[in-house]
Design brief:
Layout (H helix, E strand, L loop, with lengths): L3 E5 L5 H11 L9 H12 L3 E8 L2 E11 L9 E9 L8 H15 L5 E3 L6 H9 L26
Parallel strand pairs: 4-5
Antiparallel strand pairs: 1-2, 2-3, 3-4
Length: 159
């Protein structure tokens, strides 16, 4: 019998997370760098960040992060932003993405969030159908400004 468990990510998941996120952004995986490990430690230690992984038959095959954001509107109820949702190609259509999203929506409910929101690349039609099937509605126009060409402030290296 196959089992899927969604749990909080841990430092030992660094290699699997690096592999999954490389797959999400279609980049070569490589070994997680010291910077990746240090950033993972920050994410895991930051209140309101809920980085989760999905294990299927004991192997990490999916991840997403939900960030609970304090809010001054909506009777001061927070909201959750979901990012970096990915299930490895060989494990798709097994209910893993649904389990991850239900896990994060459950956490949002525990924090009394009034909404869960996410963005998806406009060309990812299958992902959009997936989110609609989960009860999400396309309801806004998103805007983004990448900061790759912005000068580094305070001597922080972006490489």
């Amino acid at each position: 019998m196959t089992t899927t468990v969604v749990r909080a990510a841990e430092p030992r998941d660094a290699e699997a997370l690096a592999r999954l996120l490389a797959e999400l952004h279609e980049e070569p995986a490589g070994d997680p760098s010291k910077r990746f490990a240090a950033t993972l430690d920050v994410v895991l230690g930051t209140p309101g960040h809920h980085l989760c992984v999905a294990e299927h038959d004991g192997r990490v095959v999916g991840t997403a992060v939900g960030v609970v954001v304090p809010n001054l509107s909506r009777d001061c109820r927070p909201f959750m932003i979901v990012e970096n949702v990915v299930v490895t190609a060989s494990a798709r259509r097994l209910g893993i993405g649904r389990a991850i999203m239900e896990h994060l929506v459950g956490i949002a409910g525990e924090h009394d969030c009034y909404k869960v929101q996410l963005q998806s690349n406009g060309s990812r039609d299958a992902a959009h159908r997936f989110y609609v099937d989960l009860g999400f509605a396309p309801c806004a126009v998103g805007f983004r400004r990448y900061l790759a060409d912005v000068p580094v402030v305070g001597g922080r290296d972006r490489s």
